[in-house]
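Can anyone check this?
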Amino acid sequence: MTSATLKTPLTELVGVRHPIVQTGMGWVAGPRLVSATANAGALGVLASATMSPEQLRSAVREVKSRTEAPFGVNLRADASDAAERVRIIVDEGVRVASFALAPSRELIARLKDAGVVVIPSIGARRHAEKVAAWGADAVVVQGGEGGGHTGEVATTVLLPQVVDAVDIPVVAAGGFFDGRGLVAALAYGAAGVAMGTRFLLTSDSTVPDAVKAKYLAAQVKDVTVTRAVDGLPHRMLRTDFVSSLESAGRARVLARAIRHASGFRRVSGMSWREMLRDGLAMRHGKELSWSQVLLAANTPMLLRSSMVDGRTDLGVMASGQVAGVIDDLPSCAELVEQVMAQALEVAGRLPRP
């Protein structure tokens, strides 16, 4: 393991050796990947949205049994059981709480009062300004190159906007996979980088090998953005199945969504009433139709089909554009070592003023 480190406001805030974050990817960021990342000196983030509260507590304890290093848990701020999940994080002594959507002022305060570091992910400057004003400790800024639900603004445009707008540490996401990207992000004023697809494509990831092979075979042009899954822009690998979703009629799409909603209810342990409450929360403040809310049930189950079951013919593969430039499967320890060694080598070659 490399002894090379870069101290930044991020490493000081969360207590890790390296300014690298492994994002909380549903069905992917489980105890094995998170603990391997943590043991490599980066910040691993456990994905909890696809877990029941009981499964979350068990997963947290499994990570703690595998590592003594800090790690985080990613939450859905609008989930009906968010308060219960926060209690688990506090009870179990988790260092970091991250959010895919902006948490409320009250939720941030509750976590901070318990000594938990709060790091929301945002896709616009105004969102960063809002959560910073509410007391967030740092933000992850994802540009349009990133996988999963994404925006239209490139990281190279969004990142400096946010860095200039807030006075808390900013972590850059979307388009990062090596040490050169880390140096570039630091030059923009970021405190580190967050990577999803790059950590998915490691030997510590539990994603089936056949699915990893499809990612490795992908070219940049094979990574697309579609609204066919849940009506929102979603970056993933282009496959025949994705094309079939895009060409399906409305009735067929809604019928599939109902089946997947039922499937996710069984997997997650949620009741129909809880799922309805979450649907109402999703609509709040957003221009989502009820059909879009229903279609949102597609996302976790279509991802599960690929990421857990290996059925890429029946599921989707969320992906950042960097999948098109990744061609290996290192361990998390090897990946972090490579990123840090290259970052220091590149930084050392930069012209001095």
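Reply from J.R.: I decoded it. The mean pLDDT is 90.
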